[in-house]
Amino acid sequence: MIKIIIIPFFALLTTLTFSQKNVFITLSPKVANTDLLIGADLMNLNGIVFNLDYFDYYLSGLHIIHDGGQDLDLSDTVFIVEPNNYVLYLGFLNVTNIEQMNFAVGVPPNLNTQDGVDAFDISAYPLGHPLSFQDPSMHWGWTSGYTHMIIGGQADSNTDGIADAIFQLHNLGDNNYLPFQLPVIQTQSSINKIDVFVNCNVDVWLTNIPIETVGISHGTTNENQLIMNNVLVRPVFTQSMNASLLSNSNEIGTLTFSRENATLTISWKNIININHYELIDVSGKKVKTGAISDQVGNVVFDNFSEGIYQFIVYDENLTKLNSIKVLF
Fold this sequence. Notes:
Largest sheet: 9 strands, mixed
Oligomer: single chain
Number of domains: 2
């Protein structure tokens, strides 16, 4: 009888282990279907040249719909998404097939202002927490609360092709916290890893926003309300036709990592024009940066802390060449 009890237990344990996956959501910022580059001249849907100094938003109220409509409630977590911090690690989850993401852009009312039933003053959050102090600031004070999304830069005001007029949209208000649903196709990256690759189309998000004349607009109505509503009525968040494919054809060369005790080694090969790297933790903080130039090489980090990281390599023009997620 003892064997009859033990064998099914280990069979069940093995089944549960292999049904759990590390789940990542990648929200790649795009303009005209190409990677967003802060500071570079871009073009909106009306043909207006513009560039960005920043583009940051909160994501919250997340529900992962999986395996025939099951609802995995992750709504107690708030994420911040930035141009160099757009990979969200959701955890080691008991999911097999992700079918849909339900979420909202912004900070939910219960956390947003002094009227929120679960709200804390911003100074109560530890540094590095998404709801702590950010640069640029994502908080308008205890009364007004957090800005759900901020975007700012310069736009061409006289059609001469030069971005010269400052624009800023800092979008606040519980009325602009709008949950929506996004059907998705996942990528089964490995036996214990699932990726969901989503494009965040910044030019679409700016639909009907007169960035060349809007100037500085911080508030809850007019253009601030319109840009938040665009998430509901425009294809701001989309997936490419090859979203389920494992590899990204735009990546150059290969990246791998290995670990031994507290030492992390990241290696690369066949990456031409490589110039420098960034190692970013799950909160978006740059843990390490360094210059590199060889097409083949490695970098070793000693006394490394456990966690989830992203290692990114760039060329001298700050164009991303390749990246790898590191579980240490």
